[in-house]
Amino acid sequence: xxxxxxxxxxxxxxxxxxxxxxxxxxxxxxxxxxxxxxxxxxxxxxxxxxxxxxxxxxxxxxxxxxxxxxxxxxxxxxxxxxxxxxxxxxxxxxxxxxxxxxxxxxxxxxxxxxxxxxxxxxxxxxxxxxxxxxxxxxxxxxxxxxxxxxxxxxxxxxxxxxxxxxxxxxxxxxxxxxxxxxxxxxxxxxxxxxxxxxxxxxxxxxxxxxxxxxxxxxxxxxxxxxxxxxxxxxxxxxxxxxxxxxxxxxxxxxxxxxxxxxxxxxxxxxxxxxxxxxxxxxxxxxxxxxxxxxxxxxxxxxxxxxxxxxxxxxxxxxxxxxxxxxxxxxxxxxxxxxxxxxxxxxxxxxxxxxxxxxxx
Length: 360
Known about the structure:
By secondary structure, the protein is mostly helical. It is built from 14 helices and 2 strands; from the N terminus they run αααααββααααααααα. It is 66% helix and 2% strand. The longest helix has 29 residues, at 22-50. It starts with a helix and ends in a 5-residue tail after the last helix. The model has no long low-confidence stretch (mean pLDDT 91).
């Protein structure tokens, strides 16, 4: 919204044109979301505590987590407020990509909110049934996928890009809808599985979002896209504002979520943030790069799949407990060590993902 105000003021004072630059608006978007988190966070945590909206702990989880019972949850609402306000303030609201990213994120946040609400009010750690949760995730993802497929204006919007190989570009046709669906739903659930330790999920999310902001900027810039031999998608650049808002809101939340956590994000945050990463990766045509940079999320998901499959087929477990961060807990690793080491892994993977821009 502020973009339109500054465009109007630029008629009288040319210096206001500086706010048309994506880089400046991206920085301001991140700072706005960060300040919202700092200003709103303490009062939100107090209210959650007063309303007895505390985390319920699964009986099957590690015993060390029992002491966390009652810690305020649903803190992901704070992240969503920061993302929404910053994106609406600094983004170009005539850009359909901005709206797709924002609406998908908020819709998944609503699904997570209902799940958290049932856990808190009913005292049931299972929350929303897996079938109902997956159904709504699927409806939202398919709606977004179909819209993007039908509204595509240039071939690059629905082509499949293989990193490291500049000549490998696949026209997907209607299979684009399936890919988009699986990326959004898969990433949403992967981040949700990772959200099991204080700060474990939010920092990798911030790092991947920051890298996706770079991809969005370059993909939406015709000269950079041509130079780097990546698809040029005119509307993608504005996603910088959305990604920057996610980075700012995520860092603001980490201030309160760092070990030992004062608040947990809950499914309202985890499902929404995963969907946000997934939809942005689809919009900038970097699904494979998302899997590389989000390798921690992939590792957590694969560990659960392996554990379940092994137990059903052989009656034996591969890990002491899944997701894999619980395995390391039961091996005696201190929680902060697991968290920081997973962060370090993400830094490495994000750098590898960014290297695909040039190594082609």
